[in-house]
Amino acid sequence: MKRVTLDDKTFELSIPESELQKAVQKCADRISTDYAGKNPICVVVLNGAFIFAADLLRMISIPCQIVFTKISSYQGTTSTESITEHLPVTEDLSGRHVIIIEDIVESGYSMQHLTQQLKEKNPASVEICALFHKPERCKVPGLNVKYAGIILPDAFIVGYGLDYNDMGRSLRDIYSLVKD
Fold first, then answer.
1. DSSP code string of 27-87
2. Which helix (H) or strand (E) segment is 109 a member of?
3. Would residue 106 show up in a list of annotated catalytic residues for this protein?
4. What CA–CA distance (Å, rounded) separates 176 from 16?
5. Tens digit of pLDDT for each residue in 104-153?
6. How far is CA 169 from CA 60, 106, 126, 131, in A?
7. Radius of gyration from C-alpha coordinates of the chain
8. Which residues contact 17 (CB under 8 A, 6 or more apart)?
9. Which end of the chain is more exposed for a tag (fewer CB within 10 A), N or C?
10. C-beta separation of 173 from 158 below 8 A
11. Bond before 47 cis per omega within 30 degrees
């Protein structure tokens, strides 16, 4: 499909699944090297990161523990500063290496919020792995996305777990919003 319509918006194919898989493998290889012998705990941010996390965790070649959290900050096509926590991380992270697995980092507010919360649990380290990163949109100074699969320009995207009004998550490719 070259174009899809979700609710009241039209999206055009921008990143094919084959390119996504290369980016996921790149992140998995780096994590496997950096965390060899460390048994990290991966905190997967629902809902958007579930497809990325499933592929990434199968490609990582080292043992790791997986837990889930759910936070949200989007309204329609806009990221807000308001973070809603739906499912907190309750595991003991003392002395553990933590990798946050996120679908996309845009404003950085969600990752800033989650990173601060996790650091209160006394981990050995906390790093961010995001399939997509929009550095030019980041509003949090010093936010480090150590493992970024694909750097994006400022475009609203859907597919591969990302949605528009809860639609489009199951698309295998990435589609960008067509400007009217």
1. HHHHHHHHTTTT--EEEEEETTTHHHHHHHHHH--S--EEEEEEEEEEETTEEEEEEEEEE
2. helix 109-119
3. yes
4. 12
5. 999 999 999 999 999 999 999 999 999 999 999 999 999 999 999 999 98
6. 23, 18, 27, 14
7. 16
8. 160, 172, 173
9. C
10. no
11. yes
Nearest to 100 by CA among 138, 135, 141, 71: 71
Tokens matching residue 119: 């650091």
* Catalytic hit among 19, 81, 85, 106: 106
What are the φ and ψ backbone dihedral angles of 113, each rounded to 5 degrees? -60, -50
Query: Tokens 């859907």 — which residue?
Result: 158
Q: Answer whether 110's CB lies under 8 Å from 71's CB.
A: yes
pLDDT-derived band of residue 77, with 50, 70 and 90 as boundaries?
A: low
